[in-house]
Amino acid sequence: MKEFNCEDIKLTRLESAAKLILEFGCPWQLQQFISVGNRKKFDQYLYAVDEIQQSIKSGMTSGYETHGMRAIKTMQLVFQGILECSVSATNSDSLSSPVYSSCSTNSYELQESNRTFYNELSLEQVYYLHNIVKKLNSIGCLEDCTCMYRISRKSAVDAKLLYLCIWKWTTNDLQNLDSIQFASKIEIWIQAANLCYSCIFPRERQYFEQIFDGVSTVTYDNCFLAIVEHVAVELNNFADAASSIASFQNLFAVLDLYEALLVLLPDIQSMFHTVSSTKISHVATKTINRLQILVRKLFCSFEDTVLNELSNTPLPKGTIHSLTEYAMKYLTRISLHKELLKNIIVSKPAKSLGNQEDDQFLDASGGTPLELHMIWIVISLKINLERKSRLYKDSTLRYEFITNNFIHILKTIKACPELSKMTGEEYPLKLSNYIVQAAEDYFSSIWNRVLYCLRDDGLNYKFPFYNGISRKFVKNRFKSFNTTFEEVCQTQSRMFVADIHVHHQLHKLILNKLIPAYESFLEKYGSHLQGKRYKARYIKYSSEDLENRMLSTTEANLAQSLFE
What angle, 0 to 180 degrees and rounded to 10, lies between the N-to-C axes of helices 426-452 and 369-389? Predict the structure, then answer.
């Protein structure tokens, strides 16, 4: 009687299980409960599948094989449906995303590790997928779902790759880009790589570990790596392609790539640690070494350019040369990367600057190899500018060119604390002395003509037994002074000196020499012009008048310089 009751109970349970399986004969019916998070109903369904499978294995009952096959097919389809639900959302959304539509610019950010994509799996979905996996694995029907999972999640990762605007960029593609476009590609890569290793890859690994936990046939290598490995390879390929770029204009983008890859390396090694995946981390390490070599090469190329740039057209008005502006901006940016570069630039400059004085100065300088290279570049820029100054036929423009460009170098160094620390105090001081000398040479080239009119010789009669001052010669000398002074003032008003402080220094330098010389000449020879009419005609300026005229000339010059 007890045996009969036991059999009746089993049959009743089997009939209830079969009824529940038939109730969810269509996968969408079961998926409806999943979509609203009805775990209780889902668990009941899995229990029903257990009842059917146990009865089939025991052979105690027959006629339920169809229900078992139906349940297996339903679970496989539900498994597929859960995966496709998120993937289809991604495929429809990624092409219209703002990131995709603006992938040629730098106007977006990708680095947030908590960014939500449409193809991510919720905790509920992971729960259902894991339980389906356990059930199918227990009856030996998991292989199709494993393949389905790899294809689906790989498609999801590919959609994210499209969203992040990562393409198969080759060395040839990158070499055809200008420096701005190249830097833009590097920035996109850095943002995408950071997001992959901080968010996308870890989440895919977490999905794999949670869904296939306890399933020995589904491994890290044959499941997780199959989903993400191609993305890691693509990221590596781009970085490797970038390590072949030869233009020093791309140095800072290459440095950004190098730094990003260096920071990511521990994550890469942790993510791809198995025997079959270590090639990815090995390639990343080799690329880092290649980028170090490339940085040294680009740095050396920049040094050669600064020293040997051969543009030979004199600039009008002796203004600041484009080489000076570019080189100093470049040096400023280098100083901001000094912590990174000091571990790359590890040998002192080996090239001669071409003259013994500068080579000896550099040899006697202390500091790190990077700091010595910075001083080397500043000295080589000075040498190149001096060479360019000789292209001017007008000596005044030559000294004006030297003054303006040396001032720009010195001001740039002083304006950047990091650059100032790296170049030290000694060479900027030498540069200041060069500026003073150039200003004095400038004075000599333009104002000596005026001072020459105030000389004593040539004003005496030359008769035997008589030595006196010629009134005619004095008149001519004052007349010559007035004319020359006007001409020089007119010339100077058109000059361009880029620094207000130097303007005032030149003004002071001129007055300190001109006023005493003029007052002395006026005191000695002004009395030889008799009569107010003659004096007013030939002595046009008092000392105050000269100062006022010089001041107005300087102010006009400053206004023009500021306007330009």
Answer: 20
Q: Residue 263 to residues 94, 268, 397: CA-CA distances in angstroms?
A: 28, 10, 51
Residue type at 322 in one-letter notation: S
230 and 304 Cβ atoms separated by less than 8 Å: no
For the segment 113-153, what is each residue's pLDDT rounded down to a tens digit? 344 455 788 888 898 899 889 888 887 888 888 999 999 99
Where do the domains of the chain lie?
1-114+124-153, 166-291, 309-443, 453-563
Q: What pLDDT score does 15 carry?
A: 55
* Digit-coded pLDDT (tens) for 334-373: 999 999 999 999 999 988 888 888 888 888 888 899 999 9
Structure tokens at 180: 């701005």
Q: What is the DSSP string of 241-293?
A: HHTT---GGGHHHHHHHHHHHHHHHHHHHHHS-STTTHHHHHHHHHHHHHHHH
Residue among 396, 562, 557 at smallest CA distance from 490: 557
Helix (H, G, I), strand (E, B) or coil at 466: strand
Give me the amino acid identity at 276: S
What is the rounded end-to-end Cα distance, in angstroms, of the chain? 113
Euclidean distance between CA atoms 407 and 364, whole angstroms: 25
Ranges of the chain with pLDDT below 70: 1-38, 41, 43-68, 86-118, 166-167, 461-467, 494-503, 531-532, 534, 554-564
Instruction: Give the model's pLDDT for residue 466.
Output: 55
Superfamily for 453-563?
Exocyst complex component Exo70 (1.20.1280.170)
CA distance 222 to 147: 10
**Planar angle of CA 136, 137, 142, nearest 5 degrees:** 70
Scanning the structure block, which residue is given the tokens 């969408």?
Answer: 28
CA distance 33 to 401: 82
Q: What are 466's strand-pairing partners?
A: 463
| Phi, psi at 79, each rounded to 5° | -55, -45
CA quadruple 146, 148, 149, 150: dihedral, nearest 10? 90
Q: Can you give the pLDDT at residue 16?
A: 56
- CA separation for the pair 285, 277 (Å, rounded): 14
CB 379 within 8 A of CB 392: no
Look up residue 91 and give its amino acid: N
pTM of the model: 0.77
Q: Is the CB of residue 381 less than 8 Å from the CB of residue 304?
A: no
Please give the DSSP secondary-structure letter assigned to residue 469: B
Distance set, CA 284 to CA 71, 166, 343, 389, 550 (Å): 47, 17, 18, 48, 66
Q: Which two tokens stand for residue 535?
A: 């004096």
Two structure tokens written together for 17: 């299980």
Reported as a single tens digit per residue, the pLDDT across 297-327 is 999 999 999 999 998 888 887 889 999 999 9
Per-residue pLDDT at 87: 54
Instruction: Give me the amino acid identity at 100.
Output: Y
Tell me the Cα Rg of the chain: 42
Structure token pair of residue 138: 């227990």
CA–CA dist 340, 353 (Å, integer): 26
Q: At what angle do helices 226-242 and 201-211 cross, to 10 degrees?
A: 160
